[in-house]
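Could you help me review a protein record that somebody else here produced? Here is the record exactly as it was handed to me:
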Amino acid sequence: MMLLLLLLQVLASCLWLGHGEVVTSLISTCPQFFFQKTPPNAALTPQNPAWICQRYGNKYYFATLYDKSRRIPVYSAYLYQPGHGKRCQRWMVEPQLVGPQYPKTMETESYVLHELKVSKQELQSSQAVLRDYEHLEGFHRGHLNPCSHNYDSSSCNSTFTLTNIVPQNAKLNQGAWKRYEMTIMKSKTQGCAETYVVVGSVPGSNFFGNRVNNPSHIWSGACCKTTSNTIRAWGVIAENTKNAVQELSLGELEDKLTDHYGRGNVYLFHSSCPRQ
């Protein structure tokens, strides 16, 4: 009987195309995306959080702390592994954010509404939906974990969930932030054997359509183990109204985030990552 149950579990897992698993602790389920298995501390945790181990093709690809009230991610954490994956054009939502009785699968809105029989009101109250991003003049769907930092099509596809994006100033998204993601990041990771990244958003005072928060800042921190067995770290931050990115030490970034969030000292990485 036990063997039969195990076989059924394996079969079920093989049938899942992709799912973001809502968990009680990122460190207990997907610690591999954090340097020394240490996620950011509780100073970033919002009042209504959801911890998501983002899974696609029966594999975890990154981790997200999601703010269910503001309907934006606080941060996404991942390993920097740039490649040549094709961009997915199918955006997903997370049905399990509606309630734990729903599947742990990234699905299209159409599937959630028509196959899972979730009402529009239930879905929209739990998270952002595509309609929230349809007419945001001057803003793009800004990935926290970008497709370009992922190594193949499956890992790229996993980033196209609305739990991984925020409204980002269009000029910033296509300008200075893109230069950071594509050029500066590549330069800074020279000599790194493994680079752990946490990208986040600082909540702003305004909302689009009284639903999705407009972040005041977008930020990124990184900590890498080098091929010579040393550790390097850095950070950047950008106001979400300007096409400019400020390069910082990790300690400087954490100090700024401490001021912006106002919930105590922010620590993004394990203490062994240099702050200077």
User: Anything to note?
Assistant: Residues 2-15 form the longest helix (14 residues). Confidence is low (pLDDT under 50) at residues 1-18. The chain is about 25% helix and 30% strand. The first strand starts at residue 18 and ends at 23.
